[in-house]
Formate dehydrogenase gamma subunit
Amino acid sequence: MQVDEADVCARVGDILDAHGGMEGPLLPILHAVQDAFGHVPMAALPVIADRLNLSRAEVHGVVSFYHDFRSQPHGRHVLKLCRAEACQSMGGDQVADRARALLGIDWHQTTPDGAVTLEPVFCLGLCACAPAALVDGRVVGRVDQARLDSLLDEVRA
C-alpha cells in the first residue's frame, strides 16, 4: 500500500501534537506512527526530526536500530521465531529453516500474497518451553515441526 506524503505529514503532525510536552518522546512517537501506518514511512522522519529539533540521521538511526520498527508494511500476520541460544539448542534452527522453506521467504520478508512476514526475535523469555514463537503477538512454546505447520496453516487461512 502506497502512503500519500501529504497524509503522512498531516497524521504525523497530529501524533506529534498528542505527544507534546512529553519528556523523551521519540520512541513513543515512532510507536504511534507505526501503529497509524503499519510501518514508519520515510516521509515521517523529517517531520519528526524538525519538530523534536533532531537531525534526520538521529531519527533514522533510532528507527533502524530497533528491530520492532519497520520501514515497509508487514504482512497481515507476523511470525517471529526466537533465535536465542536456548531455542537454538532445542531445535530452533530446524524450525526456522522449515519456516523459511515453507513460506518461500527469508528473514524480514513478506510472502508474495502479503499474508505472512517472518522475523527473527532474540529471546521471548520462554526458554523453558523452547523453541518459542510469537504469532501476531501471541506467544507459542514448544514449537516443533508439527506445531509450526499448524501455525502456518493458521496464518495462511
